[in-house]
Amino acid sequence: MSFFVNTMVCGFSLYQILAFFLIYSCLGWCLEVIYAAVSTGQLVNRGFLNGPVCPIYGFGMIIVLFTLSPLADNLLLLYLGGVILPSVLELVGGWALYKLYHTRWWDYSDFPFNIGGYICLEFSLLWGVGTVVVMKAVHPVIAGFVEMVPQMVGFVLMCILYACYAADVVVTAFAASDLARELDALEKVADSMHAVSDAMTELLGTTAMDVDQKMDESRLQLKLAAAEARDNAAKLSPRDAAAALRAKADEAMEAARKSSQEARLNASEAAAAVKLAAKGTAERTAELLRLEQLAEELQARSEEMRARTRSSKYFGKGRMLRAYPKLRHGEKHRSLDELRERLKYERRH
Question: What are the tens digits of pLDDT across the range 306-319?
Answer without folding.
Answer: 555 455 666 777 77
